[in-house]
Amino acid sequence: MKKLLSRHETYVFLAIVIFSLIITLINPSFFTLENFLDLLKSYAFVGILAVGVLFVLISGGIDISFTAVATVAMYVTTVIMINYGGNIVTAFLIACLIGIALGLLNAAIIYFLNIPAIITTIATLNIYYGILTVLSGGKWLHAMPTWFRQFSGIRVLTLTNPAGIAYGLSIITVIWAVVLVVAWVILRYTTLGRGLYAMGGSMPSAQRAGFNIFFLTMFVYSFMGLMAGIAGVVQILLVQTAAPNSIVGKELDVLAAVVLGGASLAGGTGTLLGAMLGVILVAVMSNGLTLMHVPSFWYNVFIGLIIIISVSASALQHRRKEKRMITVEGE
Amino acid sequence: MTSKYSESIILGLVMVVVLILMLMLTGQQFFRVGNFQSMAFQLPELGILSLAMMVTMLTGGINLSIIATANLCGIVTATILTTYINPDTAGAGSWGIILLAIGAGLLTATIIGFLNGFLIAKVDVSPILATLGTMILLNGLAIVLTKGYVISGLPKPVRFVGNGLILGIPMPVIIFALCAAVMALILNRTPLGVNIYMIGSNPTATYFSGVNNTSILLKTYLISGLYSGIAAIIMISRFNSAKADYGESYLLMTVLASVLGGTNPYGGFGKVSGLVIALIILQLVSSGLNLLGVSNFLTIAIWGMIIILVFAVTYLSERYRERRQVA
Fold first, then answer.
1. Rounded average pLDDT over B263-289
2. In the CATH scheme, what architecture does the domain A2-295 have?
3. Which fold has domain B2-321?
4. Does the CA dihedral A174-A177-A181-A186 come out positive or negative?
5. B7 pLDDT more than 90
6. How confident is the model at residue B35 (pLDDT cuts 50, 70, 90)?
7. Could you give the CA distance from residue A177 to residue A105 in angstroms, rounded to a whole number?
8. A297 vs B148: CB contact, 8 Å cut-off?
């Protein structure tokens, strides 16, 4: 119990429960399976990106460029899909390869040229996005192939609501779930995952403990790229439109969701559960405000307040812990 | 010492190369007075915002909320102005209200700076997280206040701030020069400045040498907020309006401009003069490309490449020198 109380995730979870209760009291349609499954579908995009961001944060790095990587992957995949056809597997394959390639380029700049990750990725964000916008002319693409449209409509589980409209567990949510399972296994059960935590905790220590920093850096940024690639396809599955300017600009929102879940920017900490709770909290807030008929422009005020409260609380908690350690040493 | 020396040489070289390149590409056009004047109107906003970013980076922090601060401050000023003054009939009697409105805007910015400073210095939140939170909050408040609309129609004297000329020099440039001079003065000639650099190099050592870190950090973010506010006044004056999402693309640019100017993103090093050179380089590039009819987006991509290039050259030349010394 005490261990549970000391965990950041517990508080995020409690916040979600309290908000859900308030929202349900005002509008009962919030607490329905239909709304819940709908949220799990529409937040798959943010959720998948959050997994990548979490990995980078754990390793002590940061990536701002993932929105541009996702945009490039999404756009190029769409162009190839429309002009040359293919199927859903090739679509994902192309997007993933683009994501990994751009991620590797980030990693190479960070590792070989010794440029701080935040500067590198701000620069590459502008490079990737700038070049794409120029080459594409900013044109929106709508003409998705039929097989692509059909795939996005697949439900793994179909139910009908009282009004007779079908709803269910979307294939998009399943993609998110698969990503989560893979990420969880990597973080929890592989040397790779342990290496990321070690590297984020202390780079020199990790190096002396025998972790290959070069490999870990390459892995973590290409993993972020991979997530961005998958998220890019998920985005077009969701909205059926590839717009060059639809994703860039949201990078700090995703970062905020991950940070809400307790990942620290200093590296070495953060859990998948926390990151996902962060995403869910943001989703519940946004959806709840709509269902409570609060004008949508209040959304940022609430999210901003929650972030400030959350980061302040964990800073104070951290400080108290440190103080306690000092008194113990003093005795 | 050598590294700093080589850095400013590289920056200077880059500036010359860019200038020659632009001249070769655009010919006479580039040296027209009009071109320089239009550059001079564009540079100050980004410049003052970059100063606001740079001062926090010197302490090893960052301020992601500068644009949101500027927009909220602009909205406060513009709301007061449009409520009490009709832009067409504004007479001599409106000066009091104009000063009040600008004062209120700058006060808002300072209060926001204090809030950031409080979160970072007192509560001990990491700067990037604290200012990410305030950024989203302020942005929200700005949208709530304006309901997403534009507030427009400012009185003439206010428009002069962003568009006027004094002796042929654009007002924004004069304000920017003043801001840069004051910042340089603070950083180089006051105890506060020395302490800002020291905290950026080693906060623990600074603390144990008897410096009140909390107060220094508070003041740093206060200054950052105030500078964002000054940029806001220029911005609303130039656009003759205020809105919740003006200048959002500036945020990451200010980080790049500071870093290109030699500010160490981990804190402790960086000069106002470096930042000014960097800003001139960036402005030369974008004006030159603009004359060539190159898309804005490509310009931004080229900015990104320049930054990586400058970093790469600095790093590789340092490594080369080290290796030669060892040999």
1. 84
2. Orthogonal Bundle (1.10)
3. ABC transporter involved in vitamin B12 uptake, BtuC (1.10.3470)
4. positive
5. no
6. low
7. 28
8. yes
Residue B273, Cβ neighbours under 10 Å: how many? 14
**Residue located via tokens 């994501």:** A99
Our CA-based measurement puts residue B133 at a distance from the nearest CA of chain A, in whole angstroms, of: 5
- Residues B48-78 have pLDDT tens digits of 999 999 999 999 888 989 999 999 999 999 8
> B-contacting residues of A 252-271, CB under 8 Å?
252-253, 255-256, 259, 264-266
Distance from CA of B16 to the nearest CA of A (A): 22
What is d(CA A285, CA A302) in angstroms, rounded to the nearest whole number?
8
Backbone region of residue A262 per phi and psi (left: phi > 0; alpha: psi in -120 to 50; beta: other values): left
Long-range Cβ pairs for the range B170-178 (8 Å, 24+): B170/B37, B170/B40, B170/B41, B170/B44, B172/B40, B172/B41, B172/B43, B172/B44, B172/B45, B172/B234, B172/B238, B173/B40, B173/B41, B173/B43, B173/B44, B175/B44, B175/B48, B175/B230, B175/B234, B176/B43, B176/B44, B176/B47, B176/B48
How many H-runs (helices) and E-runs (strands) does chain B carry?
A: 13, 4
Contact B308 A120 (CB under 8 A): yes
The gap from C-alpha A325 to its chain's centroid, in whole angstroms, comes to 34
Q: Tell me the β-bridge partners of A141.
A: A242
Identity of the amino acid at A90: T
Specify the pTM: 0.85
Q: DSSP string of B215-272?
A: HHHHHHHHHHHHHHHHHHHHHHHHHTEE-TTTTTTHHHHHHHHHHHTT--TTSS---H
What are the structure tokens assigned to A63, written together?
């990536």
Tokens matching residue A302: 């609430």
Q: A322 to each of A264, A327, B174, how far by Cα in Å?
A: 16, 9, 49
Q: Give yes or no for B322 touching A (CB within 8 A).
A: no
In angstroms, rounded to a whole number, what is the distance separating the alpha carbons of residues B262 and B57? 11
Interface contact B255-A114, CB threshold 8 A = no
Residue A47 has pLDDT above 50, yes or no: yes
Say if the Cβ atoms of A113 and B316 lie within 8 Å. yes
pLDDT tens digits, one per residue of A108-130: 999 998 888 888 998 899 899 98
Identify the band that residue A330 occupies on the pLDDT scale cut at 50, 70 and 90. Answer: very low
Buried b (16+ CB within 10 A) or exposed e, B97-122: bbeebbebbbebbbebbebbbbbbbe
Q: Do the Cβ atoms of B216 and B199 come closer than 8 Å?
A: yes
* Residue boundaries of the structural domains of chain B: 2-321
For A113, the closest of B255, B302, B315 (CB atoms) is B315
